[in-house]
Write a structure and sequence with these properties.
This protein has helices spanning 18-35, 40-50, 57-70, 94-105, 115-119, 131-142, 155-167, 172-180, 189-204, 216-222, and strands at 2-6, 13-17, 37-39, 76-78, 81-83, 228-231, 234-237. The chain is mainly alpha-helical. Among the domains are: 18-121, Arc Repressor Mutant, subunit A (Orthogonal Bundle), CATH 1.10.10; 130-206. A 3-stranded antiparallel sheet has the order 3-5-4, sandwiched between helices. Strand 1 and strand 2 (13-17) form a beta hairpin. It is elongated and about 70 Å long.
Length: 264
């Protein structure tokens, strides 16, 4: 079946097959779950990287806007930006948030896995690499840091929240306080420091919007620097053997003394 699409410029009619629109929609959905926000021109480059039958900005916008009106999709098209659920044009802070993340994406390479791997992101809940999250979950349960156990009401739900926070650019202090200010209990400074080391592995290996889908670890390796942990524009030095004293800098990276931050 073919449907008529009216081009906004020039008044010409462009026909786009239904399966073609659905294919473009699949790529748009995967893109916003992996990159958060992406310009129309960048989206065209992503699509054309994988597909032999190329698209162009006009076709992409016409197809995506048509499906956005008639289907329950996970993306929005506004001006020249395609954005995901966290960046909806109806949100009051839409322009501010999109501008901020676009500035941080600027100049960074784009993560483009194999086609099959890329399209897995259209589900919205695909996590890769998974091991850091599995390790953090195992650590929380083994050390009984909270009593809610597994499941969406327990540690699994907390890790989903953590992933979304990292995706959207929350810093280490904010993410650590998500745990320290809830029902997680840490038995002293050493216990918290050990937790922070496992948490930093999650930070380093989460695909984040501001890195155009790369993990901080991957992006740092591309710059050929070692023994440092980059995240959200900050750099942390690995020091697994260091014991945190009450007057030492807090391991969360806030710059405050431990006793005046997470050690309170």
């Amino acid at each position: 079946m073919m449907e008529r699409q009216q081009a906004s410029a020039g008044g010409t009619t462009r026909r786009i097959k239904r399966d073609r629109k659905e294919l473009l929609s699949r790529y748009a959905t995967a893109s916003v779950f992996l990159y958060g926000v992406i310009s129309v021109d960048e989206f065209v480059e992503v699509f054309n990287h994988y597909e032999d039958v190329k698209t162009d900005p006009e076709e992409a916008v016409l197809a995506l806007r048509r499906l956005e009106k008639t289907n329950d999709v996970e993306y929005s098209v506004f001006k020249d930006i395609i954005s995901g659920p966290a960046f909806q044009p109806r949100f009051m802070d839409y322009e501010e948030n999109v501008s901020s993340i676009r500035q941080r994406q600027n100049g960074k390479p784009r993560y483009l896995p194999e086609k099959e791997e890329f399209l897995r992101y259209e589900t919205g809940d695909y996590t890769e690499p998974l091991k850091p999250y599995a390790d953090l979950k195992a650590y929380i349960l083994k050390n009984r840091l909270m009593e809610r156990g597994e499941g969406l009401e327990g540690v699994d739900g907390d890790l989903i929240d953590l992933k979304e926070m990292i995706h959207e650019g929350f810093n280490t202090v904010e993410c650590l306080k998500y745990f320290t200010e809830s029902d997680y209990v840490f038995d002293g400074i050493d216990d918290l420091n050990s937790f922070v080391q496992v948490l930093l592995e999650v930070f380093n290996n989460t695909r984040i919007y501001e890195n155009n889908g790369f993990t901080p670890e991957e992006l740092f390796k591309r710059s050929e620097r070692t023994n440092l942990i980059p995240f959200s524009g900050k750099v942390f030095v690995r020091n697994k053997n260091h014991k945190v004293g009450r007057n030492d800098p807090c391991p969360c990276g806030s710059g405050k003394k431990y006793k005046k931050c997470c050690g309170r």
